[in-house]
C-alpha cells in the first residue's frame, strides 16, 4: 500500500470495507445461504478465470477484465445478494495483476466485483426478479429485472474504476514522476461496455433458468460452455489487435526518434488519410488499412542515414537518390507483417505521381494503388502545414490550394477533393506530438477559422532541399 497515493489507498480501503459489509450477512448464523450452490458457482467462477489465463502460457489475461461475468450474474439471479458477492470473490482474487502491488490489485478486483454483484442482486430482488424466476413462466418475466441487474453491475464497476483511476492518476501526473501508475486503466477502456454486459446478463439468466429446471446445474453448465468459448476467442482477438497496435507504435516511435524534424508527422498523416478515406466512403477494415498506411508510410526512413534526415539545407543529387530509396526499404521491413494487407503497397508507392514521374517505379494513374494515392495527398498536406528544418508551415488554405494545383499531375484529383471537403466540413485539428509544433498551432488557432486551422511556425530553411526530393518537377507540394 505504500506505493499508492493516499487518495487511491483510501479508495481501495473503502471498496474493501464495502465488500466486507456486503458479504457479512451471508456469514451470520442462520442466514439460510445455499452453501452447495455458493461453493459450486464460486468454484466455477475460479475455474473460468484459471482456464482463461492458463492457455496463454504465462502471458496472462488483460488486467481489469474481471471474472467471467455470466457466472457472477447467474449467482446474482440464483442467490441472495450477500451470497452472490461471496461467489465473485474467488475470481477477483485470481485475476492477473502484472504490475505491483500485486496483492493490493487482486484485493481491489475482488472487492470491486463483490460490491457490483451485491448491488446487482439488490436491484434484481427489488424488481421482482427472484419471484419471476421461481414462477412457471420464468424466462420472459425475468428478462427486464435481469437486464437492469446487468446494467447496475456494469455501472458499479464503472464508478469504482473511475474513482480509483482519478485517485491514482492525480499522483502519476506529478512532474518528474516515472513509471506506470499504481493502478492503471483497465484494458477494456475507461468503462465496461454496456452491450457485452447485457449479453452476459442474458446468458446468466439462461443459466439460472436451467439451474431451476429438472436437469439442474449440469444443464446450466451446457449453457455456459459455448459462451465461454466465444468469449475466450474474442479475448484472443483483442490480444492480437493489441499486439498489432504495439507493433505499429514501435515502428512509428523508431522513425520519430531517428528523424526528429518530422516527429508526429506519421500520426498526422494517418489522421489525414483516414479523413480522405472516410470522405471517399471507406469504412471498417478498409478505412483502418488506409489509416495504418498513413501512419507507417515513412517507416523506410529507418534505413536512411540519420545525417541525411537531419541535414539542414539542400540535398545533393546523390543524397536525394538515397532518400528516395525509403519506400522500398519500408516495404521490405513490413513485408512479413501479414495484418498490414494493402498498407504495404501504400508504403511502397506513396511517392508515385499520377503523371508517371514519381518513384520508385514510375507508376501512373490507376496503376498506383488507391491507398497510396490517399497517403500521397495526406503526406504532402502535412509536410506543407508543418514547420520543418528546411521550410516553414503554410496555412491550411494555402496548402490545399497547392494540392489543387498539383491535382492531375502529382496527385489524384479525387483524393485532393476528398481532403478539401473533409477539412471544409470538420476542420484540421491534428494531435500535437512535438513541442516545436505548439507555437505554430497556437498561431493558427488565433488567426484562422475551421478551414484554416493549420500551423504557422517560425521561418525555416528555404524549401529547396528535401522537399525537392518529393518529385522531379513539382517539389513544393511535399517532402520525401
Structure description:
The protein is mainly α and 480 residues long. The chain has 2 domains: 6-171 and 187-243, no CATH class; 259-477, Hypothetical protein af1432 (Orthogonal Bundle). The chain has helices spanning 6-27, 35-53, 69-78, 81-94, 102-126, 129-134, 138-172, 194-211, 217-258, 265-279, 284-296, 306-309, 317-323, 326-334, 343-349, 370-385, 396-406, 413-426, 438-447. Helix 4 (81-94) packs antiparallel against helix 5 (102-126).
The helix content is 55-70%
Low-confidence stretches: 55-67, 171-192, 432-478
Strand content: under 5%
Q: How many E-type strands?
A: 0
Number of alpha- plus pi-helical segments:
19
Structural class designation: mainly alpha
What Rg do the Cα atoms give?
28 Å
**Structural shape:** elongated
Task: Calculate the mean pLDDT score and round it.
Answer: 75
Pfam family, one: HD_5
Protein name: Metal-dependent phosphohydrolase
InterPro entries: Cyclic_di-GMP/3'3'-cGAMP_PDE (IPR052020), HD/PDEase_dom (IPR003607), HD_domain (IPR006674), HD_GYP_dom (IPR037522), HDIG_dom (IPR006675)
Keywords: Hydrolase, Membrane, Signal, Transmembrane, Transmembrane helix
Short description:
With 480 residues, the protein is an all-alpha fold. The protein folds into 2 domains: 6-171 and 187-243, no CATH class; 259-477, Hypothetical protein af1432 (Orthogonal Bundle).
Key words describing this protein structure:
480 residues, mainly alpha, Hypothetical protein af1432, 2 domains, 0% strand, elongated, disordered C terminus
Amino acid at each position: 500500500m505504500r506505493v499508492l497515493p493516499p487518495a487511491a489507498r483510501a479508495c481501495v480501503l473503502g471498496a474493501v470495507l464495502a465488500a466486507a459489509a456486503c458479504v457479512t450477512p451471508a456469514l451470520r448464523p442462520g442466514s439460510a445461504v445455499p452453501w452447495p450452490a455458493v461453493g459450486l458457482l464460486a468454484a466455477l467462477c475460479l475455474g473460468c478465470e484459471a482456464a482463461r489465463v492458463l492457455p496463454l502460457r504465462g502471458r496472462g489475461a488483460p488486467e481489469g477484465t474481471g471474472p467471467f461475468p455470466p457466472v457472477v450474474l447467474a449467482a446474482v439471479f440464483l442467490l441472495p445478494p450477500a451470497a452472490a458477492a461471496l461467489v465473485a470473490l474467488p475470481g477477483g482474487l485470481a485475476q492477473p495483476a502484472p504490475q505491483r502491488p500485486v496483492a493490493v490489485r487482486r484485493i481491489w478486483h475482488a472487492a470491486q466485483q463483490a460490491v457490483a454483484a451485491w448491488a446487482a442482486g439488490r436491484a434484481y430482488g427489488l424488481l421482482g426478479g427472484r419471484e419471476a424466476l421461481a414462477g412457471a413462466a420464468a424466462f420472459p418475466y425475468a428478462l427486464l429485472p435481469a437486464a437492469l441487474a446487468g446494467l447496475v453491475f456494469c455501472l458499479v464497476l464503472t464508478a469504482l474504476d473511475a474513482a480509483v483511476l482519478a485517485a491514482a492518476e492525480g499522483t502519476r501526473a506529478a512532474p518528474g514522476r516515472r513509471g506506470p501508475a499504481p493502478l492503471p486503466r483497465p484494458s477494456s477502456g475507461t468503462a465496461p461496455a454496456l452491450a457485452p454486459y447485457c449479453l452476459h446478463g442474458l446468458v446468466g439468466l439462461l443459466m439460472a433458468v436451467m439451474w431451476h429446471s429438472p436437469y439442474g446445474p449440469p444443464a446450466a453448465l451446457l449453457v455456459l460452455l459455448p459462451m465461454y468459448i466465444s468469449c475466450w476467442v474474442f479475448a484472443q482477438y483483442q490480444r492480437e489487435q493489441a499486439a498489432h497496435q504495439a507493433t505499429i507504435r514501435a515502428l512509428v516511435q523508431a522513425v520519430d526518434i531517428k528523424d526528429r524534424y518530422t516527429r508526429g508527422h506519421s500520426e498526422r498523416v494517418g489522421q489525414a488519410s483516414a479523413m480522405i478515406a472516410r470522405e471517399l466512403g471507406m469504412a471498417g477494415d478498409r478505412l483502418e488499412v488506409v489509416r495504418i498506411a498513413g501512419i507507417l508510410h515513412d517507416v523506410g526512413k529507418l534505413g536512411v542515414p540519420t545525417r541525411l534526415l537531419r541535414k539542414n539545407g539542400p540535398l545533393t543529387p546523390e543524397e536525394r537518390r538515397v532518400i528516395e530509396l525509403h519506400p522500398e526499404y519500408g516495404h521490405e521491413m513490413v513485408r512479413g507483417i501479414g495484418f498490414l494487407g494493402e498498407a504495404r503497397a501504400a508504403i511502397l508507392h506513396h511517392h508515385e505521381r499520377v503523371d508517371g514521374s514519381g518513384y520508385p517505379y514510375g507508376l501512373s494513374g490507376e496503376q498506383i494503388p488507391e491507398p497510396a494515392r490517399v497517403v500521397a495527398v495526406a503526406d504532402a498536406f502535412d509536410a506543407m502545414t508543418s514547420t520543418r528544418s528546411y521550410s516553414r508551415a503554410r496555412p491550411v488554405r494555402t496548402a490545399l490550394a497547392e494540392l489543387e494545383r498539383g491535382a492531375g499531375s502529382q496527385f489524384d484529383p479525387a483524393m485532393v477533393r476528398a481532403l478539401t471537403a473533409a477539412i471544409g466540413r470538420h476542420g484540421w485539428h491534428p494531435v500535437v506530438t512535438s513541442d516545436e509544433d505548439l507555437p505554430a498551432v497556437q498561431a493558427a488557432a488565433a488567426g484562422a477559422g475551421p478551414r484554416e486551422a493549420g500551423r504557422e511556425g517560425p521561418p525555416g530553411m528555404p524549401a529547396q532541399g528535401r522537399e525537392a526530393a518529393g518529385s522531379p518537377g513539382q517539389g513544393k507540394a511535399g517532402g520525401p
